[in-house]
Amino acid sequence: MSKKIRVGVIYGGPSAERAISLITGKAICENLDKKKYDVIPLEMSKDKKFFLDNNYYKQLNAPGHKSTGKKIAALVPVKSNDLGKDKIDVVFLALHGTYGEDGKIQSILESLGVKYTGSGVLASALAMNKVFSSQIYFANGLPFPEFINFKKSGWKNDKAKILAEVKNKIGYPCVLKPVDQGSAVGVSIVKTEPELAKAILKTIKKFPWLMVQKFIKGREATCGVLEQSGSPFPLPPTEIIANAGEFYDYKSKYSKGGSTHICPANFEEHINEQIQTLAVQAHIALGCAGMSRTDIMVGDDGKLYVLETNTIPGMTPTSLFPEAAGKAGINFMKMLDVIIKAAI
C-alpha cells in the first residue's frame, strides 16, 4: 500500500472572515479521501499562532470515521517550523481574507519550502486588492466598473474633493467597499451624497483604504476555474439571487436561505460562455494557480463587468465553488483531489 500524503488543512486566522474559514476548513477535513490522505487539522488563532487540533486529528483519521458534526478541541501549539516539508507534504489553505488570501501565509509556506494549494504570493496579493486587480484587468482588456479610491488620510484632508469626484465620475447610486476585504465585508450601496459621507465615516474607522465603484444595474453571476495539468478550465457559471439583502452581502452569502444559486446560470448561452471566458482570462491575468472564482455583473445594458477574483473560494455547505464543480460532474472529494494535484 502506498504511503498516504500528509495534508495540513489550515483554517481560522485573524481576518473578518474567520468564522467562515472555520466552516470551510472543517468541510475540507471531512471530505478529503482518508484512503489517500493523512489529514492534519491546523487552526490559526486570531493572534496568528498555529495549533494542531489533536482530538479532531484522531477522529478524522480513525478507521471508518464519520462526521458527528462536532469536534472536541484539544489545541496543541505548533511552531511554524513544524509545518516544514519533513512534517507535511502539502498544505490545503482554507484561510479566507486577510493573511490567508493576501499572500502572507503563502510567503510563510514558501520560506519553509512547503507546497500549498491555490495561488502564489504575488497573485494572491494582487487579487485580494481590488485596486491592483482592477489595474490588471484594465491592462488585459477586461471590463470592470469605473471607480475611485482613497485612504483614510485622503478623506481626512479633503472630503469635498473626494465627494466631488464621486459625483462627477461615478454618480449615484454607487458602491462603497474596502479595497482589501472579501465576503462583501464592509460593502454598502448608497444612493445620495449625504448617505455616502455617512457610510464612509463609519467604514473608514475599520478599513483605512476604500473605493467607490459605479453601481451596475443587472444580475449577479460568478464562475469558478479549476486547473488540471497546469491548464485552467471554467466550471459552469452561477447566477446569484440575493434573498436576505439588497445584494449578495455577507448575510445573503452565509445565512440559510440567504440566496438562491442557479447553476448552470440561465442566461443566454452566449452570455454564459462570455462569463466563463472572463473568469479564465481573469485567472490567467492575475497569475492565479489551482483554483479561483471570479464575480461578474451582467448589466441590464447587456455588458459584462468583472468585479473581483477570489483565490480561496468558500467551501462551506452553501458555497458556490463546490456547487458548480458538482454540476460539472466533479464531486467534493474529487474536487479536493484536483486542487491538491495542482499543488503537488
TrEMBL record:
<feature type="binding site">
    <location>
        <position position="308"/>
    </location>
    <ligand>
        <name>Mg(2+) 2</name>
    </ligand>
</feature>
<feature type="domain" description="ATP-grasp">
    <location>
        <begin position="134"/>
        <end position="341"/>
    </location>
</feature>
<dbReference type="InterPro" id="IPR016185">
    <property type="entry name" value="PreATP-grasp_dom_sf"/>
</dbReference>
<dbReference type="GO" id="GO:0005737">
    <property type="term" value="C:cytoplasm"/>
</dbReference>
<feature type="active site">
    <location>
        <position position="319"/>
    </location>
</feature>
<dbReference type="Pfam" id="PF07478">
    <property type="entry name" value="Dala_Dala_lig_C"/>
</dbReference>
<keyword id="KW-0436">Ligase</keyword>
<keyword id="KW-0133">Cell shape</keyword>
<dbReference type="GO" id="GO:0071555">
    <property type="term" value="P:cell wall organization"/>
</dbReference>
<feature type="binding site">
    <location>
        <position position="310"/>
    </location>
    <ligand>
        <name>Mg(2+) 2</name>
    </ligand>
</feature>
<dbReference type="GO" id="GO:0005524">
    <property type="term" value="F:ATP binding"/>
</dbReference>
<dbReference type="GO" id="GO:0046872">
    <property type="term" value="F:metal ion binding"/>
</dbReference>
<dbReference type="GO" id="GO:0008716">
    <property type="term" value="F:D-alanine-D-alanine ligase activity"/>
</dbReference>
<feature type="binding site">
    <location>
        <position position="308"/>
    </location>
    <ligand>
        <name>Mg(2+) 1</name>
    </ligand>
</feature>
<dbReference type="InterPro" id="IPR011095">
    <property type="entry name" value="Dala_Dala_lig_C"/>
</dbReference>
<dbReference type="InterPro" id="IPR011127">
    <property type="entry name" value="Dala_Dala_lig_N"/>
</dbReference>
<dbReference type="InterPro" id="IPR013815">
    <property type="entry name" value="ATP_grasp_subdomain_1"/>
</dbReference>
<feature type="binding site">
    <location>
        <position position="295"/>
    </location>
    <ligand>
        <name>Mg(2+) 1</name>
    </ligand>
</feature>
<feature type="active site">
    <location>
        <position position="17"/>
    </location>
</feature>
<dbReference type="InterPro" id="IPR011761">
    <property type="entry name" value="ATP-grasp"/>
</dbReference>
<comment type="pathway">
    <text>Cell wall biogenesis; peptidoglycan biosynthesis.</text>
</comment>
<keyword id="KW-0573">Peptidoglycan synthesis</keyword>
<comment type="function">
    <text>Cell wall formation.</text>
</comment>
<keyword id="KW-0479">Metal-binding</keyword>
<keyword id="KW-0547">Nucleotide-binding</keyword>
<feature type="active site">
    <location>
        <position position="183"/>
    </location>
</feature>
<dbReference type="InterPro" id="IPR000291">
    <property type="entry name" value="D-Ala_lig_Van_CS"/>
</dbReference>
<dbReference type="GO" id="GO:0009252">
    <property type="term" value="P:peptidoglycan biosynthetic process"/>
</dbReference>
<protein>
    <recommendedName>
        <fullName>D-alanine--D-alanine ligase</fullName>
        <ecNumber>6.3.2.4</ecNumber>
    </recommendedName>
</protein>
<keyword id="KW-0963">Cytoplasm</keyword>
<keyword id="KW-0067">ATP-binding</keyword>
<dbReference type="GO" id="GO:0008360">
    <property type="term" value="P:regulation of cell shape"/>
</dbReference>
<keyword id="KW-0961">Cell wall biogenesis/degradation</keyword>
<dbReference type="Pfam" id="PF01820">
    <property type="entry name" value="Dala_Dala_lig_N"/>
</dbReference>
<keyword id="KW-0460">Magnesium</keyword>
<keyword id="KW-0464">Manganese</keyword>
<dbReference type="InterPro" id="IPR005905">
    <property type="entry name" value="D_ala_D_ala"/>
</dbReference>
<comment type="similarity">
    <text>Belongs to the D-alanine--D-alanine ligase family.</text>
</comment>
